[in-house]
Amino acid sequence: MALIRVVNVGQEYGGKYVLKGVDLEIESGEVFALIGPTGAGKTTLIRLLNLLETPACGQVYFDGVDVTRSERQRLKARRRMAYVQQKPIVFKMNVFGNVACGLKWRKVRKEVVRSKVDNALEMVGMLDYTKRDARTLSGGEMQRVAIARALVTDPEVLLLDEPTANLDPVSVSKVEEVLEKIIGQKTMTVLMATHDMPQGQRFADRIGVMINGEMTQIGSPNEVFCSPQNREVAELVGVENVIAGVITVKEDELVTIEVNGNSIQAISELPLGEKVHVLIRPEDITFTPARNVSSARNMFDGEIIRMTQVGQLVRIEVDCGIPLLGVLTMVSAQELGLTIGIRLYASFKVTAIHVIKRRD
Fold first, then answer.
1. Could you tell me the CA-to-CA distances from 349 to 187, 284, 295, 354 in Å, in that order?
2. Does the N terminus or the C terminus of the chain have fewer Cβ atoms within 10 A?
3. The Cα angle at residue 257 between residues 253 and 258, in degrees rounded to 5
């Protein structure tokens, strides 16, 4: 039985639905990440699961009990959860007091409070900050204090809403180190909302993709990032080559897809004549100056029409009759002598392609 289950949940504000028909099950001990663009409904869903709001429709179950509208059941369930908001709240007191407040509200004995607070602050690397005024901390330090305040009550469920949003890279790294420790202990269920795709991919057992208030896809990180179910999910997770075509030849699962007079070979169970989108990740395209002997079935001659340096990587766009966007290291680009206007070959394997049905 799932620890958390939502059935056909919707939420509306001012007559406008921001969540629509969400179904979700989260198992005990699971790390589940909600990913999606800003405004997709991630925070709203987190607040519903933390029982801070009541849904406009649908049911929320916690540990098998319907907690949708019973105030008594909702309070019992909330005592088993902890919630860390995107913008951490700190009280007008020192770090120790900020972390201890949840225990004091529960009337825990002083000696137990001291032990639990010290353990929580050690977990987040803030034990030396006990007497500091929490309002003088940096954003990343405040977030770690907020996480310690959540951990100190020994929750069964930890909900994190964009835990590293608006933090500098060093602070992000420190907060992620804390999350890695928490997840590594496997003592609680973790639900995290994030628009940081690598973060969700790295930490989660499963990922739920939210777009326009709907749960568009749920699966393992590999399923979501390598086999997106529609164009919107593909673009969200970084599949920048989304090419429209039609299946014109089918031999078992090997298909030929016609794209503007060109042919791409791929593996697909979709039928002959199906309108499809061909999805290719930029890093799965290989570029060579000559037509090399290769195991890749797909090879196209084209001209570089755009180059952009991003850190130590170079993104190149090649017009092969099919527009292809790829990525190389700066060293590889220099070794190949790549510049705008040069012709080269782009190749990719059938196994690097994911084919989905077109909805247009």
1. 42, 8, 7, 11
2. C
3. 160
> Mind listing the pLDDT tens digit of every residue in the chain (360 residues)?
799 999 999 999 998 999 999 999 999 999 999 999 988 999 999 999 999 999 999 999 999 999 999 999 999 999 999 999 988 888 899 999 999 988 888 888 888 889 999 999 999 999 999 999 999 999 999 999 999 999 999 999 999 999 999 899 999 999 999 999 999 988 899 999 998 888 999 999 999 999 999 999 999 999 999 899 999 999 999 899 999 999 999 999 999 999 988 999 999 999 999 999 999 999 999 998 888 766 788 999 999 999 999 889 999 999 999 999 999 999 999 988 999 999 999 999 999 999 999 987
The answer to whether 35 and 191 have CB atoms below 8 angstroms apart is no
Contact in structure between 141 and 126 (CB atoms under 8 Å): yes
For residues 220-248, one letter each, b for 16 or more C-beta atoms within 10 angstroms of the residue's C-beta and e for the rest, the string is ebeebbbbbbbbbbbebbebbbbbebebe
Cα separation of 340 and 174, whole Å? 40
Strand 298-310 and strand 323-329: the pairing is: unpaired
Among 214, 157, 194, 206, residue whose Cα is nearest residue 23: 214
**How many alpha carbons fall within 13 Å on the CB side of residue 58?**
24
| Cβ–Cβ under 8 Å, residues 69 and 58 | no
Nearest 10 degrees: CA dihedral of 228, 160, 206, 277?
0
Query: What are φ and ψ of residue 126, in 5° steps?
Result: -125, 20
Which candidate, 108, 113, 138, places its Cα nearest to that of 125? Answer: 138
Instruction: For tokens 């570089």, name the residue.
Output: 304
